[in-house]
Design brief:
- The chain is mostly helical.
- It is built from 7 helices and 4 strands, in the order αααββααββαα.
- It has helices spanning 2-13, 25-43, 53-64, 79-83, 93-109, 135-143, 158-167, and strands at 68-72, 75-78, 115-117, 123-125.
- The protein is elongated, with a radius of gyration of 29 Å.
């Protein structure tokens, strides 16, 4: 008994245990951002500083053209639009709609066998997508679904009409 009491006194008078670490919300956010940066670094290789000479020459040739540069489906891009791809410039509707039309055509061309699930359950390949013109939201927000006559825009996407009508 005396020995147990002596051990208890030693423990009581000994060094105090360290206080438990409870990270603050800011510390947790910093740690999460660091993890996200590491994941991003692993998933996306760094962008090259310069283009290969052949590609650089192709870009210069395209930038020196005037008028309509490219057409795809019902969309077209002119020299004025292409200059908006330079650093510090804002994209315009024509560029966004042109790119959206290319994405939509690629998705439609690969419909059916485009989505694959690998052994880990991760979806790979092209996804089944639908792209609306940038003018869709403007018409929807200003005129509404019925008055804006957007049914013809959404006839391929039946679920969208149900969602819009349910939210009104």
């Amino acid at each position: 008994m005396k020995r147990a009491i002596a051990n208890a006194h030693k423990t009581f008078n000994g060094p105090k245990p360290p206080k438990p670490f409870h990270p603050s919300y800011d510390q947790l956010q910093i740690a999460r951002r660091e993890k996200d940066k590491n994941i991003e670094r692993l998933l996306r290789p760094p962008l090259p500083e310069t283009l290969p000479q052949k590609d650089d020459e192709d870009v210069d040739a395209i930038l020196s053209k005037s008028g309509v540069i490219a057409k795809f489906a019902r969309e077209q891009v002119s020299d004025v639009d292409i200059r908006r791809l330079m650093p510090g410039e804002w994209l315009n509707d024509e560029l966004i709609n042109f790119y959206g039309a290319m994405i939509l055509a690629r998705s439609e061309a690969c419909r059916g066998d485009s989505v694959q699930v690998n052994c880990k359950g991760i979806t790979t390949g092209l996804l089944n997508v639908y792209y609306f013109s940038t003018f869709f939201w403007t018409k929807l927000s200003k005129e509404g679904y019925e008055q804006g006559r957007l049914a013809k825009w959404t006839k391929k996407v039946g679920l969208l009409k149900e969602l819009i009508c349910a939210s009104n």
